[in-house]
Amino acid sequence: MNPKRKKRLIIILAIVLGSSLAVGLTLYALKQNVNLFYSTTQIANGEAPKDARIRVGGMVVKGSLKRATDSLRVEFTLTDYAKNVTVVYTGILPDLFREGQGIIAQGKLDANGVFQADEVLAKHDENYMPPEIKDSLKNKPAGVTQ
Amino acid sequence: MIPEIGEFALILAFCLSALLAVIPLYGATVNNELWMSYAKPLARGQFLFVAISFICLGYAFSQDDFTVRYVAEHSNSQLPIYFKLSAVWGGHEGSLLLWAFILSGWTVAVSLFSRALPLDMLARVLAVMGIIAVGFILFLLETSSPFLRFLPEAPADGVDLNPLLQDVGLIVHPPMLYMGYVGFSVAFAFAIAALLSGRLDAAWARWSRPWTNLAWAFLGMGITLGSWWAYYELGWGGWWFWDPVENASLMPWLVGTALIHSLAVTEKRGVFKSWTVLLAIFAFSLSLLGTFLVRSGVLTSVHAFASDPKRGLFILMLLAITIGGSLTLYAFKAPNVKSAALFSWLSRETLLLVNNLLLTVMAMTVLLGTLYPLLLDALGGGKISVGPPYFNALFVPIMGAMTVALGFSVAARWRETTIELLIKTLWKPATASLLFGLVFAFAYGKEFHVAVLIGMMLSFWVIFTTGQDLVSKFKNAKSVIEKLKNLPLSYYGMMVAHLGVAVVAIGITLVSHYSEERDIRMAAGDSLDLAGYHFEFKGTTQVNGENYVAQQAALLVTQNGTEVTTLNPEKRSYNVKGSMMTEAAIDPGLWRDLYVALGEPLNNGAWAVRIQYKPFVRWLWLGGILIASGGLLTVADKRYRKKALA
After folding, report:
1. Chain B CB within 8 Å of residue A132 CB
2. What's the CA gap between B545 and B537, in Å, rounded?
3. Do A26 and B368 touch (CB under 8 A)?
4. Is A127 on the interface with B (CB under 8 A)?
5. What is the predicted ipTM?
6. Cα(B23)–Cα(B41) distance, rounded to whole angstroms?
7. Does A128 touch chain B (CB under 8 A)?
8. For chain B, which residues make up each domain, given as ranges?
């Protein structure tokens, strides 16, 4: 093999090795850090894993928001108009969090089927409905506006 | 009447760009000088009409013409005039018009400042930009005209601009970002023109470089502004969220960074030519992808506007044509490209190649993390989101590796470097950064973090190797001042940008590890101690703004009994839609920010309050500004100016 070809071969080998290493590590990291989305029905039916970080989305049931008097702990119910899930969160809720609005919560499901959220997301445009929630509201009763 | 003129001007601009896309290109192919020379006037005409169209839309906003649908949906008579004008790009249609306006602006700039360019090259470059303009103006006219009317029943007043966007940050952030995105179209056009003509040489790299650096500087500035805006306006003190749209702007910047380095090698040494072309294609394709991601509404994001599948499809097609077309051209033409020079395994060329690979890998990991949820969903794999830990786990180590390579490549020589030389030059900065890093990591803050040690060592490494290189320039100089004057501006640009990298790295390291944050319930008289500061909540008062009513809190901040400042965070309710907005109060400083934001009102006059201590957070944006200014300095280098005027 002439030196020029040899050099080229080494370069190509290095690139192939390097990129497969990078892709492998990337996929591994992806697998570790992916948060699956579940609807409230899926959670109520026990389809969601316990102890894994997941996302749940739905509409906040009107009149379900309860605040603790001495801390920032809040409790509310999420629904997809079929089944409900209780969510507990300690912290500041986003500006667009309102009863009757669609939100997404991230966190873990505890042993009692209560969702312990560490993050609550409400989108910054009130006309905007996260696609996950839109798709999960299959059982929306007629006349309910989003 | 005025909006119709705007629409009509846009149609005329479309016709001109169609001519621009065809005539000069054909002229260059058959070598007809007359046809080629049409490129300049057509580029100018196109700019003129897009500008007229843009001004018409701005006029409609300033006059509160709510018969125009887009104005009615994004403005309101109560808005202050400067927000009325910036609302022009507050939504989908207007921001696309801004895109087209900036594109025609870059086109006309190329036609004005490229007098040194051979006629056929100029004709091809302008024609390629004309092709891009055809796609975008057609997109505007077909799916997203901002001039549609609400007739006969126009609303009495507008819906209002999203309060988050009623901010100085929004006035400058999108135009800056678009200047960058769209600016890469120039690099792209140069690359395609060079492929078409078969003249991939040092001269091509030299023409392309100032444009690429300029676009890259704008993009960097835009990203910096976006991060700053998110920090104070989204209300919660985060500065980077790995939001898909942030990623969309970061990817072209990363590839653009690789591109400007690769272009430097191509100009100076005549190698990496096909790689440079490929990077130029990717940088622009990623800009288009960014536009697609933002505008099509496929992503859940702060920036996503209400979606319309027709629009998404259209941009996807534009993207497919751009990438497919240019890569096909590349496949046919690139094998003919010959590298002029050889270089050894250990040389600045190799090290810059390493830099390029690392940057490309970074862009790829971001791309994968951004698109993976979309792909999985499309394949029926369920709905997922990829969290910041993924990005941090991959991005941070590669960034670290890159800062190491940075020091080496500054010290290495072109063509060939010996290990002895590297050791001789670098042992001092290496030892110094080790020492400084150790001292800093142990001395600063309450606790020791290994990550801080590594982060600071790498930052000092960048600073010291850069400084060492500057000092080495004086070795044989008689007078330091004289030498400083004679160093080219592009060298200073490089130094400033590299120092910017170190400043950003310091900011990221320290703000990530030493920030303190508390969410608490506070009533008048309550207080909190955080990071050596004492925050006392004095209660809230009502304040009336121009188009909102706010509850304004007062927090007295003291340190060891002396008053530091009073912070006044607000919770605003905007009159038109009743939307709520958190307006944080910040006491900024070079060494730390104090950040207070109001959450929601609780019972008995108490509020949920978030109080944060953010050390060195300003360094992030300061570094971003330095990096971008470095890019601007290189553009001002007289090497390019002389060529341009000659």
Report:
1. yes
2. 22
3. yes
4. yes
5. 0.76
6. 12
7. yes
8. 1-165, 396-514, 520-616
